[in-house]
Amino acid sequence: MKRTTKVRLGLLAALTVIVAGLGWLAWANFGPKPKLAEALHGFVLDPPQPAPELALTDQHGRTFRLADHRGRAVMLFFGYTNCPDVCPATLIYYTRIKQQLGPLADRIRFAFVTVDPEYDTPERLREYINRFDPSFYGLWASPEDLQPVLDAYGIYVEKVENENSPVGYWVNHTALSFLIDPQGRLLVAYPFGVEPADIVTDLRQIL
Amino acid sequence: MTARMRKASILLVAAALIVGLALTLNVGSLGPANVAGAGAAHAHDASHGAPADAGHGPEHGAHGDHGGHGTSPAEAGTSLAQVTITGAWVRPARAGENSAIYFTIANPGPADVELVRVETGVAHVAEIHETVMEVHMVQGRLTQEMRMEHVHGLHVPAGETVQLRPGGLHVMLINLKQDLEEGQTVAVRLWAADGSYVDLTVPVSQGEPRG
User: Fold this and answer.
1) Residue A20 lies in a domain
2) Helices B3-27 and A3-30, interaxial angle, to 10°?
3) Residues of B with CB below 8 A from A119's CB?
4) One domain, residues A17 and A47
5) Is residue A37 part of a domain?
6) What CATH number is associated with residue A65?
7) How many A/B residue pairs have CB atoms within 8 Å?
């Protein structure tokens, strides 16, 4: 091949790469949006899957099952009562979401599952939940019954010994809020930190 | 093709590559890579402000002797005299439980400030902690996890503002000596590395004070 031809081909290749790159950028920024009018503000399960069932005891001693809440959405969080930061913050965010939903709030239930069932008895959960909103559910299961639920939702729990903690340990854990829709499907997982207003926007589309 | 055309083409390609690179880096949203601990990669809340270094020695703003406990600001350093602390609040909780204090600290300078200790009569232990979100592999599965790290020195460089907020930095009150109920206030003393301190009166509240 002549030298000039090689150079021209090289330039053409470079130009193609540049154009392709710009095209990709344009697609990413201005391309077609997902099916919902506005994208959901968390990790979306696409397509939605049936949420793993729970059979846990609530703070009043009743059995809580997702199947009993068809027709309503359920927001699920895994935490523990001695948690000073993320868990109370999440429950506060739930009260704000409920407030901002107004009349729609009747179509969603909020549930807190303890990942420290040895310390967090249903009694203790009731006292804890009441600080935020007595209509929230504080859910408990024995460690043996809890483990399959943790596995099903991919919840990582690690007790870390710490002499300063009043109970001798902290618990590191996955902090995700799971939104289960009125049809019982797991729709989206919100990492800690998503603004209540954004979650409310998502809920208005689903409820 | 002429030498001039060749040079122009190379410049064009180079320029396009630089623009593309710049755009790509702007699209990403990873904050400063490592804060308060080595090892795993942390994904941080972008509104974090200045990074908090663990065990970072005081290198600025140490005037005269470092003083000891109970040293008045006049004798020790004066770094805390220059800061403004706003929006302080502490969560309600029962005696024997834990709670957390949040606030915003603005340091106009000229000295850097390092918060090293917190004292309060309402808890057995008060420490600065940071909730850190980590993503890692556990038994072959990708896992998100939030854990708390003890921050030994909270660095607030001159000209910067650091926000302590839920899910991030906070002063953890460990093993409360009394109930904290909304409407009450808590006296807290913050100590800096240069020996200066500042006293706060923190309201008990379930959320950020509005207005």
Assistant:
1) yes
2) 20
3) none
4) no
5) no
6) 3.40.30.10
7) 99
What gap in Å lies between CA A140 and CA A119, rounded to an integer? 11
Residue A22 lies in a domain: yes
A20 shares a domain with A115? no
B68 confidence band (pLDDT: 50, 70, 90): very low
Shortest distance between the Cα of B78 and any Cα of chain A, in A, equals 31
Partners of A186 in beta bridges: A49, A180
Residue A107 has pLDDT above 90, yes or no: yes
Residues in A touching B127 (Cβ below 8 Å): 164
**Domains in chain A, number:** 2
Is A4 in the same domain as A101? no
- Pair A144, A190 in one domain: yes
Residue A5 has pLDDT above 70, yes or no: yes
Reported confidence tier of residue A202, pLDDT bands at 50, 70, 90: very high
Has residue A15 been placed in a domain? Answer: yes
Which of A85, A95, A131 to mutate to probe the B interface, most B CBs <10 Å?
A85
pLDDT tens per residue, range B29-51: 333 333 333 333 333 333 333 33
What is the structure's pLDDT at B210?
57
Instruction: Say yes or no for a CB contact (<8 Å) between B98 and A8.
Output: no
Whether residues A135 and A180 fall in one domain: yes
Mean pLDDT of chain A: 91
Q: Which long-range contacts (CB under 8 A, 24 or more apart) does B30-38 make?
A: B35/B130, B35/B132, B36/B130, B36/B132, B36/B149, B36/B151, B37/B132, B37/B149
CA neighbor of B107 nearest in space, from B63, B59, B151, B49 = B49
Among the ranges given (A23-27, A71-75, A89-93), the one the predictor scored with the smallest mean pLDDT:
A23-27
Q: Are residues A78 and A161 in the same domain?
A: yes
How many other C-beta atoms are found inside a 10 Å radius of the C-beta of residue A179?
26
**By the CB < 8 Å criterion, does A5 face chain B?**
no
User: How crowded is the C-beta side of B110, counted as CA atoms within 13 Å?
Assistant: 2
| % residues pLDDT > 90 (chain A) | 71
- A189: nearest CA partner in chain B: B144
Phi and psi of B89, rounded to 5°? -155, 160
List CB contacts of B109: < 8 A, sequence separation 6 or more.
Answer: B82, B158, B159
Instruction: Please state the φ and ψ torsions of residue B163, each to the nearest 5 degrees.
Output: -110, 125
Tell me which residue range forms the domain holding A25. 1-32
**d(Cα B121, Cα B104) in Å, to the nearest integer?**
21
- In this structure, the answer to whether residues A24 and A52 fall within a common structural domain is no
Shared-domain flag, residues A55 and A143: yes
